C-alpha cells in the first residue's frame, strides 16, 4: 500500500502525528497563488492592489504570510481585525468590510488606524463620519455598491443583485445624496467604490457587466456632483473547480477585468482609478486538505454504502449549506483501484451531514484515512462546535516539514467561559 504525499509530507503520518480530523494547508501553494495574482495585476496596470479576503481562512500565521507577500487584507469583523493586529499586520493595509459594523467595531478600527473602510450604508457613513471627527481623524472610505448584477453561482453567495443585504443600491437619488454628504464631511475621504458580484465564479462575465454599470455611474457623479473616483475595488469571487472541470485561467480572467476597466474609462473620458481585487477562496482553497479517519462502514444492499468519518458538517458545513461538491482520496491506499461507490458521511446528528455522495474509492475499512481535497477555504473559518465536537488542528506544511499553526481544541476548551450559577440546583 502507498500513502499520499503532498508537499513532501506523508499525509497518513500527519494524521497519526496530529490526529484527525486535521486541516492541512500548503504554504508553498498559498504563496505561489498570491504571487500569481500580484503578477497578473501588475502586468495590466501599475496602479493596482491585491488584498486577501480573510473570511476564507484566517489565522495569525496566515496573516504573516499575507504580510510578507505584500498583499493587503480584507477583514469583516472585529475578531478578524484583532487576529490581524495580534499577528503584527500593518493596520494601514487593512480594508474593513461588513454590512453591520457597530460603534464598538468602528471605534476599534479608528483607534488602530485601519487603512480603508468599505461603507455599506448611509447610516454607517453618518456614524463613521461623526466618530472620525470626534477623534480628529479622517477615514478613507469606499462605498460598497449593489450594481444589480448576478453572478453565475449559488443564490446564497450572489452578492451584487439589487435585492441584497449588501451595498448601496443604485436606485433613486440615495447614492448621489451619500456621495455629496461624504464629500462635505471633514471626517471622511471618499476615494471611490467597491462591489462584489458573488463567490465561486468560474467566469468573469459578471465583473465585466458591473464595470459597465459603474462606468456610467462614474460619469453621472462626475458631471452632477463633481466626484472623481480614485479607487475602484472589484471584490473577489474567483472560483476553483473542485475537480469538476478545468481550473480558471486566472491570467485571462483578471486580464479581461483590467482591460474592461481601462476601456470603460477611456470610452467615457474618465481617469483610470486605482484597481483593487480581494480574492480569498482562489488563494487558499486548493491549498487545503482535510484528513479524516474512517469509522463505521454501513452497507445497505442495493441502495448505498455509508462510510462514516470522525468529522463532518462541524468542520465543513458547505455541502450541507450549499450542496458544495468535493473530491477525496483514500490516502493510505493510493495504489489500489477504486472498486466501490460509497457516500462519505459525517458524524453529526443530522441526516444532512453528508460530505461527499457516490464517490468511487477502494472499498474503505475502519481506520483508513480519507483526504478531502480543496478544503482550504470556508472550512476552518466556518467550523462550529455543533454536537460539542472539538475544532480540528491546522497544520502548515512546506518542503516536507509540518508545523502546527492552530492547536486542536481540548475538551476543557469546549466549556471554557461557561459558569454554573451558585443557586442553580
Itemize the secondary structure elements and their pairings.
Elements: E1 5-6, E2 9-10, H1 11-18, E3 22-26, H2 27-44, E4 48-53, H3 60-68, E5 72-75, H4 78-86, E6 94-96, H5 103-112, E7 116-119, H6 122-134, E8 139-146, E9 168-169, H7 174-184, E10 188-194, H8 205-225, E11 231-233, H9 250-267, E12 274-277, H10 281-284, E13 288-300, E14 304-309, H11 318-322, E15 328-330, E16 340-345, E17 354-361, E18 369-373, E19 393-398, E20 401-406, H12 411-415
Parallel strand pairs: 3-19, 4-5, 4-12, 5-6, 6-7, 7-8, 8-9, 8-10, 10-11, 11-12, 14-16
Antiparallel strand pairs: 1-2, 3-13, 13-14, 13-18, 15-18, 16-17, 19-20
Helix pairs in contact: 2-9, 5-6, 6-7, 8-9
Active site: 349 (proton donor)
Protein name: Diaminopimelate decarboxylase
Catalytic activity: meso-2,6-diaminopimelate + H(+) = L-lysine + CO2
Verbal overview:
The protein is α/β, with parallel strands linked by helices and about 425 residues long. The protein has 2 domains: about 150 residues, Beta Barrel (Lyase, Ornithine Decarboxylase, Chain A, domain 1), CATH 2.40.37.10; about 260 residues, TIM Barrel (Alpha-Beta Barrel). Helix content is about 30%, strand content about 25%. The chain contains 12 helices and 20 strands. The strands form 3 sheets. Strands 3, 13, 14, 15, 16, 17, 18, 19 and 20 form a 9-stranded mixed β-sheet that branches. Strand 7, helix 6 and strand 8 form a beta-alpha-beta unit. Helix 2 packs parallel to helix 9, helix 5 packs across helix 6 and helix 8 packs parallel to helix 9. The protein is globular, with a radius of gyration of 23 Å. It starts with a strand and ends in a 10-residue tail after the last helix. The relative contact order is 0.16. About 0% of the residues have low confidence.
